[in-house]
Structures are given as C-alpha cells and as structure tokens.
Amino acid sequence: MTATRALLLTIALAWPTGPWAAEKISLYALFKDKAMILVDGQRHLVTAGGETPEGVKLLSTDTEAEEAVIEFDGKREVLKLGIVVDGSGGAPASVTLYADTTGFFHADGSINGAPVTFLVDTGANTVALSTDMARRIGIDYAKGQAGIAKTAGGFVKMYAVRLDVVKVGEIVLRNVEAGIIEGSQPDTPLLGMSFLGKLNMKREGQKLELIQRY
C-alpha cells in the first residue's frame, strides 16, 4: 500500500469555524433573481427578497460575478458560487470511472487550470493535497487558515483554503474547500467530499459514475 493510500483511509481535516458557528451557509447554484442556498446541508431555492426556513434572506444575485448577497442574523455576506450553472437545459455533465486492480478510482482533472490525477476518496472531508503539490500548482496556501489534519502518520499542520476551479472531465466546480497538508503527502491529490458531495454518485461493481446535479 502506498503512502497516499494509507493516508486516505484515516484523513480527517479540522476545519475552522465559519462566519456563523450554528449555521453552515453556502451558495450551491445561481440563477437570475434566484439562488440555491445550502444551510447545514439542506438546499433551498430562494427568490431575491425571500428567505430560507432558517432565516437566511437572499438580497440579490449577480450571475456575471457568480455571487449572491445574503443577510442572516443581522449580518450581510457575499457568497461566491460553488457550482456553475450554464442554463443550457442539456444533460448534466458526467464522468464514468473504473476501479484499478486494487479497487481504487482515479480521475483525470485539474486544479486552478493545472492538470492533476485525483484519487477518489469519499472518506476525506475535502479535496486534499500536499504543500509540495500546492507550490507546484501555484496555490498560496500560507494565506489560508491554519489547522490540524489527522493522518495515518499522526497529526500534521494543514491550511484551509478555497480553490478557484476544480475540474474532473466536464464537471466544473468553483470555490471548492480544500486542505493543504504540510509535507509531501498525499503524493496524489484526494478528491474528497467538498467536491464529491456536490455530485450524484452511482456505483455498479467496478464502475463509478459522477453526475453534476445542476
């Protein structure tokens, strides 16, 4: 078993608290005068001027800037889009992967335009890569929020960042949470749930299909 595969079995990232400790709020999809807002894992389609059952009010949307302005608990915040919606009405983008001889799935893609081969890991909270790879790609991870990652080798320093664009095949997600782990491991970037959790996944034996929801 490689060091990467040993790592992916136990990795758990300690994420910093967001702007609202009690509510995790993100922009899931964006339309003209509407937005799909994710609050603690629950999706709500909200029209400008309306609000979610949790009290998150949508003030405005900007499809060109790929952002929305919300208000919650008396505070305003600009949310950046996590998924790009082209509005073409065509079939959703999908990627079909096949397991290797050891049962793992790999996917060709890119991070911020730099080509990479991911190791699919539903046990990782986020996309995860080493500081060595982050430097090669040009990610300024030192500006991220420092934290701790628990790996097979023990606790190591990590940085919580957001990647501008993560692409696998024709599936494109923006503003994706990632953990940059101090050192040379994992030697293959992990495609974790900050990406996979925004897709539909269908597995049939040695075949895994990833389907963009919107």
Can you walk me through this structure?
There is one protein chain. With 214 residues, the chain is mainly beta. The chain has two domains: 3-15 and 89-212, Cathepsin D, subunit A, domain 1, CATH 2.40.70; 25-72, no CATH class. The chain is 8% helix and 50% strand. The protein has three helices and 17 strands. It has helices at residues 3-8, 131-137, 193-196, and strands at 12-13, 25-31, 34-39, 42-47, 57-62, 67-72, 75-80, 94-98, 106-111, 114-120, 127-130, 145-151, 154-168, 171-181, 190-191, 199-204, 207-212. The strands form four sheets. Strands 1, 9, 10, 11, 12, 13, 14 and 15 form an eight-stranded mixed beta sheet that branches. A three-stranded antiparallel beta sheet has the order 2-3-4, with no helix packed on it. It has a three-stranded antiparallel beta sheet with strand order 5-6-7, with no helix packed on it. β3 and β4 form a beta hairpin. The model is unreliable at 1-22 and 83-89 (pLDDT under 50).
